[in-house]
Amino acid sequence: MSEPDAVAADPNPAPRPGLVARARACWRGLGPAGPLLVIAGGGPLLGLLALVATAGSWLPLFEGGGAAAAAAFLALGGLLAACCMTPTHATSLVAGYVFGALWGCLLGFAVVLIAAALGRGLFARLVGARVLDAIAASDDARRVHRALLGRGFWRTVWLIALLRLSPLMPFAATNVLMASFGVRAGAFLCATAIGIAPRVIGVALVGAELSELDWGVDARAWPAVVSVAATVGVLWWIGVAAGRALRREVAAP
User: Fold this and answer.
1) Is the pLDDT of residue 15 over 50?
2) For position 231, what pLDDT does the model report?
3) How far apart, in whole angstroms, are the C-alpha atoms of residue 109 and residue 140?
């Protein structure tokens, strides 16, 4: 080996950080967004278990519908979903069950928009600029951030709508991430309205069907079971297609 080659070759190259070290660095870079993402992922599931266990206590308060019940449902549902205390699937299902197909869809949709607006405002205050600083220090993170926010209003709306359609990203966690990325309220709410609509309408319609169903009669149960299975299948297919489209869009130069 020639002397220049020997000089060029570093006999003791710096080792690449391990997986645990990279994970710790990523966690530190997230700052307060890290714990919030954990809460956003697990909180709605725990809230759902609590709602199911106590349904006999709170569900009769909304039965019968009416303006007062609708207003109370809108306020409580939006607040609980914004604070990661219940999944929006549950609020949409209960809305359809209690208020019927039309009003259930409208109320379920309104709850999601209220929760998105409240959640974004709350998480933006809690997270601050820490995540944006971490993004600036990572080439991959800068590329994703630029793909999301650096190509115009409607491009941002399109990508966030695809993210909302994806079955892999929880509603509350998306609120945390978009607040951390500094997404503007207009684009965020517009994308949420577009991306969440199929899921809210589908789940609310399932709830409305269940409200008219006598599960004790097998002959009547099967049509509802088929309807629920078909709705879940369609929503899952839409979500998978949206996830693939999102990956293509982010990878595009």
Assistant:
1) yes
2) 45
3) 34
Please give the helix or strand (H or E) that residue 112 lies within, else none. Answer: helix 88-127
65 is written with which tokens?
């519908």
Phi/psi for 183 (5° steps) reads -65, 135
d(CA 5, CA 125): 54
The predicted model scores a pTM of 0.71
Please say whether the beta carbons of 155 and 146 come within 8 A. Answer: no
Token couple for 187:
């684009």
Q: What mean pLDDT comes out for the span 152-159?
A: 83
3-state secondary structure of 182: coil
Q: How far is residue 110's CA from residue 183's CA, in Å, rounded to a whole number?
A: 21
Residue 220 has pLDDT above 90, yes or no: no
Residue 70 to residue 49: CA distance in whole angstroms: 23
Choose the most confident range, by mean pLDDT, from 88-102, 121-135, 214-228. Answer: 88-102
What are the φ and ψ backbone dihedral angles of 151, each rounded to 5 degrees? Answer: -130, 30
Q: How many residues would you count in the chain? A: 253
Handedness of CA 206, 207, 209, 213 (dihedral sign): positive
Instruction: Find, among 181, 177, 148, 142, the residue nearest to 162 by Cα.
Output: 148
Neighbours of 186 (CB within 10 A): 11
